[in-house]
Amino acid sequence: MAVYTDVSPEQLEAFLSTYDLGRLRAFKGIAEGVENSNFLLQTEAGSFILTLYEKRVNPADLPFFIGLMQHLAARGIDCPQPVKNREGVALGTLAGRPALIATFLYGTSVRRPSVANCAALGTALAGLHRAGADFTASSRVNALSVPGWRPLYEQAKDRADTVAPGLSALIADELSVLEPAWPSGLPAGVIHADLFPDNVFFTGEELTGLIDFYFACNDLLAYDVAICLNAWCFEPDGAYNQTKGRALLAAYRTVRPLSDQEIAALPMLCRGAALRFLLTRLVDWLNVPPGALVRPHDPKEYLRKLRFHRSVTSPADYGVAS
Amino acid sequence: MAVYTDVSPEQLEAFLSTYDLGRLRAFKGIAEGVENSNFLLQTEAGSFILTLYEKRVNPADLPFFIGLMQHLAARGIDCPQPVKNREGVALGTLAGRPALIATFLYGTSVRRPSVANCAALGTALAGLHRAGADFTASSRVNALSVPGWRPLYEQAKDRADTVAPGLSALIADELSVLEPAWPSGLPAGVIHADLFPDNVFFTGEELTGLIDFYFACNDLLAYDVAICLNAWCFEPDGAYNQTKGRALLAAYRTVRPLSDQEIAALPMLCRGAALRFLLTRLVDWLNVPPGALVRPHDPKEYLRKLRFHRSVTSPADYGVAS
Predict the structure, then answer these.
(1) What ipTM does this complex have?
(2) What average pLDDT does range B222-240 have in this prediction?
(3) Secretion signal: which residues (chains A, B) (predicted)?
């Protein structure tokens, strides 16, 4: 649920007058995205999504995000394509916020991904990694990779055990294992870093779109795979579904091969990915403002996933074909 | 901002399978309507609004609302047209709620109506009253007409003065004037009863749609006119704009004449309409639940309007041409 900023008809009309999109046909706030305000915008030129960037997005990062979407869309990735105004500029200002009009993507997200969905996701993820390989116009450090975890832990450690007994000690232990052992030297590039099912659209079993590039950054490509294994291949009861993992990984590798080093690193990368979402969810969970419009995700889901990864003895446990 | 009920992809797919609307193309919660959950639904057959009726709507009223929209749409009124499923039934059940698919109306609402907007509204309102004249399949008492006001006052009177000094006594005075003197015998029929600017769509200056019929009921037609004079013809500074009132009334009368009795009753009807919205806003204002998703409207806006109506000495003050 996300419309944080009110846009008056006069403001919208003035903003649209700088674009070649014809007359306004409809404009509705939509409940999509947690960080920003999003609106369905229909004009004589078609359907679009208007995004106003709210406080949690650093304006300095916007050229990276928008440049990346332009780059990917130009390479045939089904992602929102930023629309430029008459002066050739995509990023504008509306209601005091940085604002972007992007093309509307059809499709709906799945809540319980099927094996076929996981395979389609693997193909799309590898396609994204390939298409992003020559995006060198700008770069963005992953603020939520290893160096970002301990500060999150510091915010949460005193109250972590209110969420689950022993959680604080478990996270401390994970940090002591992951920080010194985190893989380096693996292939790096642009990663999505948040490619959860709600950021992927399907029509039937066809994957029709990837959205929400606002965590995208430069990092290890296999770390993005690990994030997706976490987000797509666990069942509601907490069990890892090796069939789904196998489908995701096999489909990925048909488009972009994984090196032996990347495969060997998967268990560590999956632990790190689980810890990263456990930590951000935990901090959000412990800091829900009164009257919050958004219910935070349950951190315990990622605690269960982390416990699975701690039990893994080989990359084969994820469904990697040898 | 209104998405109160979560709809899973599986629930949506099962629901849509009972309609002839082709494959799903997009589905997004939208921030429109306060009482119900609304979703943009796009299928191969076009764009629709899916509404789930939440607790504030009495299910027993739904056949009236839906029958009325069908009736009006069949008579060329630009309102949402209920879509029937394969069994010829419009009202269904989705996610445990009564649910309706209706056609999507293009256009956007204005926030500061122009004189031309007020004239277009007057024409549309009279057209609505004419088209509703033969809607006799069912009827609905106006729960928010005179008999409904004192119970609202009883809920609010002890804390009313926290909103504005002297408010409790002023409402008591209004009730003592309006209850015995409320007009009777005027032309009655189906009224919208909530035709505020956010329920009316325009494309440019052309009125393209009327929405949100969930306060519609049988009542005095001129009371609907009074509600619209209140909602459309005051300026943000609280002043009544007689030019807008004149435009609204003149346009209305070109489609449906107002009798001398209706014109004579306008000051009393406008006072009543102002009191009705003052009372409901006051009760909502005093009873905002913690963590509410919806910010209540300011009751003081209608206190100012009520004070204006108390100063009116003749229907001519509203811009009625003699």
Answers:
(1) 0.84
(2) 97
(3) none
